[in-house]
Each structure stands twice: as C-alpha cells, then as structure tokens.
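Morning!

This is the sequence you dropped in the shared folder:
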Amino acid sequence: MKPIRIGLLGSGTVGGGMVAVLSRNQEEIARRVGRRMEIAAVYARTPAKAQKIVQDAGIACMITGDAHSIVGNPEIDIVVELMGGTTLAKELVLTAIANGKHVVTANKSLLATHGNEIFGAARAKGVMVMFEAAVAGGIPIIKALREGLVANRI
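The structure's back. Tokens below.
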C-alpha cells in the first residue's frame, strides 16, 4: 500500500521534533494508522539546517527553500504547518487546502486569527484540518469534546 506522504513546512524546534518523532516511531505509527507515513519534503528558510535534521533522523527527503513547491506538489497527501506566524502560514495552508491536501497545524495564532476562513475552505474542499497540538499544549482534548461531550453545550 502506498505510504502517506507528508510535506513539512518548518524545520525549527517543533518541525525538527516532528521529524525525530516520526522517524523514531515509524513502525508503531504504521501499525496504528494502517499505512506507512513518510516525510517527502521539508520547507526551511535555512535548508542546510533542515538537511542536518533529516540526516540525523535517517530520513531521505527533498529539502527546499520554496514552500509553494510543497503545497503544490501532487505527491504530497498531508501538509504539516509548523512555521508559525499568520501571513505566509495562512497563504500556504489555504493553498494546500485548495489543492486537496489535509492540513495539520500547531499554530495557535493562525487558527485564532484565520480559523473560520481555514475551516470553511477545508469543509468546502472536503479535507481535514487537524489542530489538537495548537490547543492546551497538545493535551488530547479536541476529540473528547467533539465525540464524548457532543450533547453538552461548551
């Protein structure tokens, strides 16, 4: 079965951590998800730094200074936005959604400022925007609120 291909926007502290976690837990994630997940491309303002991060994790992927090449790449299934900010991040997330890609973000500011627009675009395109890491420091609360407390008004 074809792996799920991830395009990572950002290779700072959080992005580097994600690379390490995906690399270290690849087998367990594949077992739980039912498919292998692989980082196919990483956008970084400093490509040399990103190259070291992926090499240290034992991952071979494309490193680019052009974020649009990731959100426009038809080979990428999921875009993970970990670059922060609201301007470029918003543009890239909306472009990814318009291109039919699911999005994962830990960007609190982006969701607080442009969440309605982003979720509306995702709904219209039929893709998901996952954001649990942007809420309560990653405590798994969103799923519990959506599914376990659906009858409550929160």
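Headline: Strands lie at 4-9, 37-43, 62-64, 78-81, 102-105, 129-130.

More detail when I'm at my desk.
O.
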